[in-house]
Design brief:
Elements: H1 2-20, E1 26-27, H2 30-46, E2 55-59, E3 66-68, E4 73-77, H3 78-81, H4 87-102, H5 105-111, H6 113-116, H7 124-132, H8 136-142, H9 148-155, H10 159-176, H11 181-189, H12 203-207, H13 212-224, H14 234-251, H15 254-258, H16 267-280, H17 284-297, H18 302-314, H19 318-331, H20 336-348, H21 352-365, H22 370-382, H23 386-399, H24 403-416, H25 422-441
Parallel strand pairs: 2-4
Antiparallel strand pairs: 1-2, 3-4
Amino acid sequence: MQRLGHLLAAALVWLALTLQAGAATLIRDADIEHALSELSRPILQAAGLSPNSVKVLIIQDDTMNAFVLDNNHIFIHSGLLLRMKTAAMLQSVIAHEAAHIANGHMARRSQNMARANTISGLGIALAAAAAAAGQGEAAAGLGLGVGRTAQRVFMSHTRAEESAADSDGLRYMERAGVDKQGYADVLGLFRGQEVLSESRQDPYARTHPLSRDRLRAVEAYIQARRGNAAPPDPAAQYWFARINGKLSAFLRAPRWTLDRLDQSGTADLAVMREAIAHHRTPDPARAIAAIDRLVAMRPKDPFVHDLRGQILLESRQFGAAVTAYQQAAALAPRNALILAGYGRALLAADQPKAALEALMTARDRDFRNPLMLRDLAVAYAKTGQDGMASLVTAERFALMGRLPDALIHANRAAGLLPRGSAPFNRAQDVVFAAEAAAKQRR
């Protein structure tokens, strides 16, 4: 039953993201997530939170927003991140959202769910909160109906919460030795939003109340403690430039990237962005030549080998892609996203048994990756394990919020797997969740 709670939490948070971000998707990239962890670690530690328990993720969405839905995830829109100029700006957003977690704002909303449920139906974010709080059966009973007013109430912070998150976020930055000016710089991006009609405001302004008093309070705090200003951290700025540079190279037009290589910050990041731009053109020869130059510059960097594997795989050079991912996995043997890429390359190279081993390890370390689950199902099917293929497919559909499809595959898995086995029980968990959601919708 504990696993049911985890599965529901993941599925419902995923659906909440889909609703909140207009069907945008999470950007899962080993390099970017590592860089985010490097930047968030000192902030989370200053907030008294475990860096191993709180993960910062990016949503592909051009609007400016950042938010939390539970105590374990901070979400930042790519549109906000790409407007930032410094590591301190990104760390200020993490500090602010970490304060919402540390101050118990999300936990209080879970406890007050009954009151919020009376508002215009049931929002998916409320169900996500129940599952994240460990109330798996209750969350399943809540169903997947969407009440946008309830969702809005759940997502929106009060002015009191924002004031507390501002003051605590600034203290976390000070403890972590991060320049607090980054906080004011981020708020400056939203200056004037409060006078716009709601339909024209960025999502952040709708869920994080802005006011002139709030801006003045932040600026006054920073001015009063100018003597404690932290010097820039070159390592933090490098990781920020790496996130920003890689993200923009994948999301913006290749020509835009190639015209701005001299703005990359360091020589290795310029070559990385060049490789990505040529890959997206597509120009495989130039992309591979550039990524090979980057490997020569950073031979011990697992994320460089990971990117090389991706470029080779998507250029249909499957054998070379396997070798690249193998090197990446050797350098970062516990990274679930790298292992997932390795398994995908092995599948493409028609090595399903080896792919299955890599993908099973990836799943054990992070099961919330639909692309990995799709590949794992293929690997099971190619090795003659149809029951497991159906089970993993059911879990993938559940994770994506497609519970009717999940129910079909879970029932198929239950008919193929040994009754009472652990995989059979996993299939039953999906059946239980899907059937409970279906009853709620009737």
